[in-house]
Amino acid sequence: MKKNNLPRLVLFGDPKKGQVAKVIDEFMDFVKDKAQVVANCDIGKCTIDVLKQVDFAVVFGGDGSIISAARHLSQSAVPVIGVNLGRLGYLVEFSIDEVKALFGDIIGGKAGIDKRMMLDCSVTGNGKEKLSSAALNDIFIAAGPPFKMVELQVCVDGQPLAGCVSDGLVISTPTGSTAYNLSAGGPIVSGKLEAIVIAPMCPHSLSFRPIVIHPDSVIEIIGARVNEGTSVLVDGQLSVKLSANDVVKVKKCKGHFLIVRNPTRTRWDTLATKLSWAEKPKYERGVTETKD
């Protein structure tokens, strides 16, 4: 039972990083008569039994903290309130002052909650599973040392898609479309959509362009020719070596990541302010345009 009908919270954050410990203490003092804090722990140490007891998870940190939380919370359907203490804060939408000011709207359901698609990734070799994890942003196959191009055979739903000779391959969610995928020349996809983006890294082809496929598709990638250091990275946080003939399987995750929206901004505001998307040229004032 809830204590005095107060919302129940679990807090996540690394107290050894920057101002995290100080801000968590500040938040605990703020919510002492507004919410019940069930647990305050590292994300990897929080059990499913604890998550079943709470209404919201509050994550203190940067985008990396939110991404790490997503992999653990995707099966629990606990909405996440992200408090930005990092540098970019693209996914972490609230400052500590905004959380305080909007706390009533947040716990009252007026702020709105986005449901984000996630991917499930497994890597198998010699009949053994080498890695299995959910991903919020992307799965990246990096060529690695000695930095020669690799050859990857890509299949979608059992049908050959392409042989990719390149520096690697990025498979991303709409949420991750503004991360590594964007740097690789892939499209920006609205976070509200469900789709999978496949983007090659510096392909040895002028015509191999990023492709967007159905979210229910199953992608299989075989390392036909790889380097000694070729690796598979999940959200840039988990990694495993990819050997020749290993199979990387990527599909839509059964669970979703739920994140509380900041009602004072939109996704497009964030895209413009954080990444300077569609920013106008910086014209010099007082310069008169002339014609030859």
Q: Overview of this structure, please?
A:
- This protein is globular.
- The protein has 6 helices and 16 strands.
- A 6-stranded antiparallel beta sheet has the order 6-5-16-13-8-9, covered by helices on one side. The protein has a 6-stranded antiparallel beta sheet with strand order 12-11-10-7-14-15, with no helix packed on it. Strands 2-1-3-4 form a 4-stranded parallel beta sheet, with helices on both faces.
- Helix content is 18%, strand content 36%.
- The protein has 2 domains: 125 residues, 3-Layer(aba) Sandwich (Rossmann fold), CATH 3.40.50.10330; 137 residues, Sandwich (Tumour Suppressor Smad4), CATH 2.60.200.
- It has 292 residues and is of the alpha+beta class.
Descriptive labels:
292 residues, alpha+beta, Rossmann fold, Tumour Suppressor Smad4, 2 domains, six-stranded antiparallel β-sheet, 6 helices, 36% strand, globular
The SSE string, one letter per element, is EHEHEHEHEEEEEEHEEEEEEH
Summarize the main sheet: 6 strands, antiparallel
Strand content: 35-45%
Q: Under the CATH scheme, which architecture of the largest domain would be assigned? A: Sandwich
Instruction: Give the CATH level 1 class of the largest domain.
Output: Mainly Beta
* Count of all domains: 2
Low-confidence stretches: none
Concise summary:
With 292 residues, the protein is α+β, with helices and mostly antiparallel strands. It is built from 6 helices and 16 strands.
